[in-house]
Design brief:
Layout (H helix, E strand, L loop, with lengths): L19 E2 L12 E2 L80 E5 L2 E5 L1 H7 L1 H12 L4 E2 L2 E5 L4 H12 L3 H5 L3 H13 L3 H11 L7 H5 L4 H9 L1 H10 L6 H9 L3 H6 L8 H22 L23 H9 L28 H13 L1 H4 L5 H4 L2
Parallel strand pairs: 3-6
Antiparallel strand pairs: 1-2, 3-4, 5-6
Helix pairs in contact: 1-2, 3-5, 5-6, 9-10, 10-12
Length: 394
């Protein structure tokens, strides 16, 4: 993990991203050279002082709204890179919104023949202790203890008070009682979050594994799953809720979710990474990992996965141009000048070569690009200070 003290302060220093053309002096030809200047080699994002940044509450889930140490963070503009939309969020990160919750269910979870009442907050659920005990050894122990202690009753039925969110407990109980409820509602992130939290707490391993596999469709651990177009909707949901996904991964101790979630988070505006969104705020170690990992991702895409967007192929220069089918070197320059190169797009697939004026002889082979993406994906956990995929994937 990274330490907050490893990030130096740059208050009073400004770093900007620019792309400039540097035409050679006019001669009898119309050829020109250009270079793309990003930032200093070792400073690709704002270096931020965070050692005074404090988070209280119950980390990592639901930490309170944070206060930053006085540095104003400007919102970043959306990236305009013409990458396949299959990987990109349907909304710009500035417009992150929570997925809708499952529709209200008619079952009020009050069975007249129930043997125990569960109290969560101000809500009561009369259910069957035999069913709960069958599904969860933790529930079995809890209910046995309550019987031995002559617990209080509610409407003539033994009552057990639990410290769970009432709506999350409702979702868990509905899932236990109705076999189709999981498939009907697994599309909602708030539902999966509730199931993962409580199935972990109550050691309902089969249900936990089922929910985790569904969440991993949107937060994959393999590049093949990341590229699979059938998971576009799941990826979009995960990206819109990425701060909550990171907090959930910490809460249920599922580190395999973090590399891809960190990648999604690194594409957010810096102000969102620090300040949170919609009540979800990251703990300091996760903020630090995202900020420092973002810098490494930007380096990697420049050198490994997308180098063709940072330089013109050598055989397009000078007099060798007559042997090349490229339409115009200016297209690449103009294209780059329109882009936001502060947001990583390290694993996105570039396909529209005509927009940057590249002919077939200049276009990198698909096999080469895929091999570079695989190399980068293998390094993704290390980029964010985690162990290898093999060690963190359960």
């Amino acid at each position: 993990m990274f330490n907050a003290g490893d990030i130096p302060s740059t208050i009073g220093r400004s770093f900007t991203t620019t792309a400039i053309a540097n035409p050679e002096k006019e001669s009898n030809n119309k050829y020109f050279y250009f270079q793309t200047i990003l930032m200093d080699e070792d400073v690709l994002v704002e270096e931020l002082r965070v050692k005074d940044y404090q988070l209280g509450g119950r980390p990592p889930s639901y930490p309170p709204k944070s206060e930053f140490c006085g540095v104003a963070l400007a919102l970043e503009k959306p990236s305009l890179f013409d990458i396949e939309e299959g990987h990109s969020p349907t909304l710009h990160p500035n417009d992150i919104e929570e997925s809708y919750s499952p529709p209200r269910h008619l079952n009020n979870l009050w069975y007249d023949d129930g043997s125990v009442v569960l109290k969560a907050g101000d809500d009561f659920f009369r259910v069957h202790s035999s069913i709960l005990s069958q599904k969860s050894s933790v529930f079995a122990t809890l209910l046995l203890q309550s019987q031995a202690e002559n617990t209080e009753t509610h409407k003539g039925c033994p009552m057990v008070t639990v410290g769970d969110d009432a709506e999350e407990l409702r979702q868990l109980l509905l899932t236990i009682y109705e076999i189709s409820y999981f498939e009907d509602n697994a599309q909602y992130f708030v539902y999966l979050r509730a199931i993962l939290r409580l199935s972990t707490k109550y050691e309902m391993l089969r249900l936990r594994d089922l929910a985790l596999q569904r969440l991993k469709c949107g937060v994959p651990t393999t590049l093949a799953s990341f590229d699979d177009p059938k998971y576009h909707h799941e990826r979009a949901i995960a990206q819109r809720n990425v701060l909550a996904v990171i907090n959930l991964a910490r809460e249920i101790n599922c580190l395999e979710l973090l590399p891809c979630a960190y990648y999604y988070c690194s594409r957010l505006p810096t102000s969102t990474i620090f300040g949170g969104n919609g009540g979800d705020v990251l703990a300091l170690p996760d903020i630090t990992a995202c900020i420092l990992g973002k810098e490494q991702l930007l380096k990697m895409q420049r050198k490994t996965t997308h180098p063709f967007l940072y330089t013109t192929p050598k055989h397009c220069y000078g007099f060798s141009r007559k042997n090349c089918g490229c339409e115009n070197d200016r297209l690449l320059l103009e294209y780059l000048q329109r882009q936001d190169v502060t947001r990583p797009y390290t694993f996105e697939q570039f396909t529209d070569w005509e927009k940057i004026g590249m002919c077939k002889s200049c276009t990198p082979s698909r096999q080469y690009l895929e091999s570079q993406r695989r190399v980068a994906w293998a390094q993704l956990p290390k980029i964010f200070g985690l162990e290898s995929w093999e060690k963190i994937v359960a």
